[in-house]
Amino acid sequence: MIKVLFLLGGILAIWRWRGFLLKLPSEKRNSFLWKSVFFVVFLGSVGLVAMGKLHWIGAGLAALVPMIKVIISMGLRALPFLQIFRGFRSSPSHIRTEYIDAEINFYTKIMDGEVLSGDYGGRKLSTLTNDELNSLSDWLKRKDRESFILLNTYMMKMGKSAGSKNFSQDQTNNSFSQMSKKDALQILGLNESTTNDEIVKAHKRLVQRLHPDRGGSDYLAAKINAAKDRLLG
Fold first, then answer.
1. For a designed S-S bond to 121, which of 68, 117, 162, 219 qualifies (C-beta 3.0 to 4.6 A apart)?
2. Rounded distance, CA 220 to CA 202, Å?
3. Which domain does 181 fall in, by range?
4. Per-residue confidence (pLDDT) for residue 41, from 0 to 100
5. Phi and psi of 99, rounded to 5°?
6. Would you give the DSSP letter of residue 216?
7. Is there a single domain that holds both residue 136 and residue 37?
8. Are residues 128 and 165 in the same domain?
9. How confident is the model at residue 1 (pLDDT cuts 50, 70, 90)?
10. For range 145-152, the mean pLDDT
């Protein structure tokens, strides 16, 4: 008789539960279903433990099973933010002059670049010896002042020789008024769909990284400031 009453009670509960489920908006049904599963598993586990048919550790593990869906769901929701954060940390800045195309990652503090023409055209800066860097520096000093400054910034930042002895500290007097929008975006590590708020945040982030104690330089700071002005001006 007791079993029959339990059966009838279960059928009634399911009927009421189904009616409540159908009244819910479609976007809330999935959440309600998983909460219901958790509730049923939890009550079932408690009942089995009370009857001595299930160890309490097993009951705890059984109750955690429905939570896997919640954990996975939360992880999937957080994934885009993790990807944005990863991209935010790793997006390098690109600075291109007439003779050098440089890439700087302010988080790893690694800078490299490619010589675009001349005796060392096609070579990576990191593959050049100290003597070759000094030779290139002397050549660029005669050919293009901004390329010369960028190379010496690389040499100082990466601890390459003493070739930067010819490096003038009045680098911030350089004019970047001809900077294109594409160049400005590359300097800040941004793309075409960037908003003004993202530009301001990227600029602030890079400027903070340009403190002398963190391997920054006046030239890089001037470039980044000019890039922000170009995009927001």
1. 117
2. 14
3. 91-232
4. 65
5. -120, -10
6. -
7. no
8. yes
9. low
10. 87
